């Protein structure tokens, strides 16, 4: 294992952006002066939209400003020999129709399903040979209950007063959430209901709008009489919801992380329940709620979608930056202008960029209503995320689950490993720090509060996919929060602050897995401004804009413009800033493509 790190720099102060990376042009097709449709950005949603349009006979070109396709779903070799899913790192939410309709397996997509899937080690004082406790969750419900019983037998199974029957809290909670996810499912695969057309449109428009109400009616039938309980999940603080189900803090904190991951919110803030639901409503290969790694990293998923699109004739160009959306004198989109001055004509333009980039930077402002522009500029884009990609020469050795003598991956190594998640109060205090402009970790805490630590989700995809790292080595993804976009006093992130924060994160990991810091070969630290600059994520927000209740469904990105269409005729949104939102889901791209195709047919 020592040979793994030989010849690789261990200089922790070196800028990750000066590191060696694989740069190549991903060009499929020859650039022509005119297409039926142009897609701005080769993120996964843009590629999905292009693949569907091309299959429907719409000649489509995709223009990507970076040297590599995928947007945030990308694989990059930042450190020689180590392949990182540099931004997004897990798969679950991708719509099952996209797998089958785009024949992604045929185009090379391979998955590694995880079971168990969640591991939360405790920071506890060891007594003699006793190791600290941990919480390991997977698909085996009986084993889950054993794990939960370490912290609370009541949470594993509760005896109903006066009866012998057992009320099994955790299985019942899982079934409760699964039913809510099932109710939301129909809403993901169609444009939001067009309420305005239903009430104010012509007779024909009203009749057409009836079909958009069908998913809402389906959802209502599934929820049924339990609507009040489910309404509370979507609107209440997730900590309140979990308190009604459980008493064990490690279990509640582990579940609560899904309610705050990627979001500048706290488990104690109303609305965090929907973010949790957003992260539990996926599945892989027919297994509801399953999460997995893509073989070859997340970029392999984007490659499979691109391959499907190109196989039907779509043209995909990298290092082709769109500078402006071109508008005719009559106020209709007529194509785009590239940064090099080239003009590409098209009947429609779909933007996989964020709403802010699309409407505030790329679209001539005189063609957009002033109120619309104002609403777009006011979108909540706060992000708490700093992503750290780490190359190591051995697996982390957790006190709560020691490694084997040979160092082979154990079941917990394939999990999402939750650190600093012993208590929901830790999550809340980390959030409070970020709101004060402080990265979550205060060596010298304010008198009014106890010290807090960053929340860390640690994943080791090479535990299931050894092709990502040299033999004996591993790649580690650290999804950490909370870090503000701008530090206190208006200070910007610099190399010193970036490395200081990463060092504190590594100190936290070291407490759970002694020797971790000594195993590090190199790292790539991406603060919110870095995520914005490299991937075009506004404010570093992985969802393009917050998944808050006032920015969902009818109101995503803004009210009256949730159908992928914009106020400018011929310009559409197809990225995470459109319904149903962020995550590697592909639904926005698929839905937008069908809306565009219907509009093209009616022209």
From TrEMBL:
It comes from the Eukaryota. Gene3D superfamilies: FAD/NAD(P)-binding domain (3.50.50.60). Keywords: FAD, Flavoprotein. It holds the Pfam family Amino_oxidase. It is found in: Mitochondrion matrix. Residues 46-396 form the Amine oxidase domain. GO terms for molecular function: oxidoreductase activity. Belongs to the carotenoid/retinoid oxidoreductase family. Interacts with COX5B; this interaction may contribute to localize PYROXD2 to the inner face of the inner mitochondrial membrane. Probable oxidoreductase that may play a role as regulator of mitochondrial function. This is Pyridine nucleotide-disulfide oxidoreductase domain-containing protein 2.
């Amino acid at each position: 294992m020592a040979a793994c790190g030989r010849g690789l720099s261990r200089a922790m102060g070196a800028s990750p952006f000066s590191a060696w990376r694989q740069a190549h042009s991903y060009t499929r097709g020859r650039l022509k002066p005119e297409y039926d449709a142009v897609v701005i950005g080769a993120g996964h949603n843009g590629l999905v939209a292009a693949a569907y349009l091309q299959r429907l006979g719409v000649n489509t070109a995709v223009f990507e400003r970076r040297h590599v396709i995928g947007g945030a779903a990308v694989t990059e070799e930042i450190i020689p020999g180590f392949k990182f899913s540099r931004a997004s790192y897990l798969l679950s939410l991708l719509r099952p129709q996209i797998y089958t309709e785009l024949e992604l397996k045929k185009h090379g997509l391979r998955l590694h399903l995880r079971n168990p899937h969640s591991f939360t080690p405790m920071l506890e004082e060891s007594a003699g040979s006793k190791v600290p406790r941990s919480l390991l969750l997977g698909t085996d419900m009986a084993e889950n209950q054993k794990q939960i019983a370490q912290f609370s037998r009541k949470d594993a199974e509760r005896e109903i007063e006066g009866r012998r029957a057992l009320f099994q809290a955790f299985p019942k909670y899982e079934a409760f959430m699964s039913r809510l996810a099932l109710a939301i499912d129909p809403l993901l695969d169609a444009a939001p209901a067009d309420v305005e057309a239903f009430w104010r449109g012509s007779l024909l428009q009203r009749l057409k709008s009836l079909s958009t109400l069908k998913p809402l009616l389906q959802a209502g039938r599934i929820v049924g009489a339990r609507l009040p309980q489910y309404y509370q999940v979507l609107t209440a603080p997730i900590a309140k919801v979990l308190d009604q189900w459980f008493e064990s803090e490690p279990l509640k904190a582990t579940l609560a992380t899904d309610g705050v991951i990627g979001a500048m919110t706290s488990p104690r803030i109303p609305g965090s329940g929907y973010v949790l639901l957003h992260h539990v409503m996926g599945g892989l290969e027919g297994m509801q709620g399953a999460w997995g790694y893509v073989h070859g990293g997340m970029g392999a998923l984007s490659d499979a979608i691109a391959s499907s699109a190109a196989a039907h004739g779509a043209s995909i160009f990298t290092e082709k930056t769109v500078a402006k959306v071109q508008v005719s004198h009559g106020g209709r989109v007529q194509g785009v202008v590239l940064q090099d001055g080239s003009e590409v004509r098209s009947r429609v333009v779909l933007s996989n960029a964020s709403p802010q980039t699309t409407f505030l930077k790329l679209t001539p402002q005189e063609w957009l209503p002033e109120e619309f522009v104002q609403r777009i500029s006011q979108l909540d884009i706060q992000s708490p995320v700093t992503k750290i990609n780490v190359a190591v020469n051995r697996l982390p050795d957790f006190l709560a689950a020691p490694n084997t003598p040979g160092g082979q991956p154990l079941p917990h190594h394939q999990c999402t490993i939750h650190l600093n998640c012993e208590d929901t109060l830790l999550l809340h205090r980390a959030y409070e720090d970020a709101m004060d402009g402080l990265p979550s970790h205060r060596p010298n805490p304010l008198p009014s509060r106890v010290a807090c630590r960053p929340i860390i989700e640690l994943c080791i995809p090479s535990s299931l996919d050894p092709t990502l790292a040299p033999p004996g080595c591993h790649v580690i993804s650290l999804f950490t929060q909370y870090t503000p976009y701008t530090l206190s006093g208006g200070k910007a992130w610099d190399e010193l602050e970036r490395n200081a924060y990463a060092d504190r994160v590594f100190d936290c990991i070291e407490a759970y897995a002694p020797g971790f810091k000594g195993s590090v070969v190199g790292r790539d630290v991406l603060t919110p401004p870095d995520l914005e600059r490299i991937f075009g994520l506004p404010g570093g927000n992985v969802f393009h804009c917050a998944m808050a209740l006032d920015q969902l469904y009818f109101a995503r990105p803004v009210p009256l413009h949730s159908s992928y269409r914009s106020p400018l005729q011929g310009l559409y949104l197809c990225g995470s800033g459109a319904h149903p939102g962020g995550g590697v889901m592909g639904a926005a791209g698929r839905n937008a493509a069908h809306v565009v195709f219907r509009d093209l047919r009616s022209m």
